[in-house]
Structure formats: structure tokens, C-alpha cells
User: Fold this.
Amino acid sequence: MKEPFFPQVAKIVSMDISKTYEELKKLLLENKCRIVEEEPPHKIIVEHGWVFTTSPTKIEKVVAFVLTPVESKTRIVAATSLTTDYKNYIAYSLILNMIFLIYMGMITYFLSELSSKLSVVVSNVGSELYVLYILFFALIVLTIIEVARTIYAYWKRSSFAENILKLLP
Assistant:
């Protein structure tokens, strides 16, 4: 939870704090959350999701629910943060993509230089070079899609907490 900005979602429930805590805990366990920390009935921190997914509601995250009594009701504030495993997965996959792009770019460049200097083998190198161009640009497109998907998942990471709070009466 050491991000400079993480979205918070809040809701006021018309139950006392103990009953709200029990209902929230039951909902979280039904949604396959792993309880990381508990301070009944004021705080519950859970991990939810999986590293290798594309859905913002299913990405691996840590959600902290803080409950405070407000008269006869309970206010719940949920803060969501991505786990270190998910951040590392994104970082390593992007770094490997960039390394592969650089490597393919170098091969493409050297083959194009080779085909311009050796006109005898142009027919063989030219067809392989065309395939490399297609692969190179396909990898660029896939990298752009991966970056866009990661940004979307980052900004929508609190959607799981919103869905849980909607289920509370």
C-alpha cells in the first residue's frame, strides 16, 4: 500500500460495525480473497486475484477495508493497491519485450545492410527480411497493446472493491 495515489471507495451501511464486519468478511471469502491482516471489527486487509490476467477486477491486488461507526451505521472505506508480484510481472514482461524488439531491430538492420551489399543472394535474404519486418512490427503492436492494457488495469484496479461494497446491504 505504498503507492503515492491509490483510489479509495467508500460506502455507508445501515448496520452496526460488528454485523457489517462479519458480512464483509463472508463476502470476501466467497470471492476467493486471502485474508492478510485482520483487526476485528475495524479493519480487514485481503489479497485477491491472479498475476496472469487481463481483467482489472481479477488482477492481483491488496484491498484494505477500514470500518468506522457513524451513529447506528457503519462507514466502510476500501483502498486498493497492486501487489509487488503483479508490478514485477509487468516490469519484467515489458523489459523482455523491449530487449526482444531491440534484438529483432538489429537483426533486421544487419540483414537489410547485407542484402544491399550482396546482390547475389538478394532473393533469399529479401524474403526472410520481409518476414522479419512483419514480425518486428507485430511485436511493436503487441507491446503497445500490453502497455495500454496495463494502464487500463492500473486505473481500474479499485473495481473489485466497488463490486464488493455494492453487494453489502
